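Backbone geometry:
***
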Amino acid sequence: MGGAFIDCNRLFCHLSNYTKQEICSMTIFNMTSRQDLRHAFDLISKMLSAPPDQAGCSSANSCLLRGAMKNRDDLGLSVALIKGAGGVAKCFCVTLIQNPTSPFDTSQAVPATANMIHEPQPEMQQAKDGVQASLDSQPAYTAG
């Protein structure tokens, strides 16, 4: 539960401009804006230490962070805590979103989609229409 990425989908790689290998060698905090690191540590700590009776409270189970992707300043992270049996923290689900305006932004997160890819990737251009349509409708996410 150190925030290390264990997997990601293709769209997460295309949007963040990182390879899957690069992502899996990083943590949530490597992709968080440097100005927001202290706030991010506080939010993640609160999520992990929330008592079981707050399990239904979305504010205790998720947070929005401004991102720090290579070559991207428009992407942020939505980090959701996934709990297993007995309310024990199991992992995080991280979704790329449009960057929040501030670390205290409480507005609804807007998931990043394939139409936010800046530079067309050869693999993405050659995708069949059905595959491209499924990428357009799926949020970019990973778990760690």
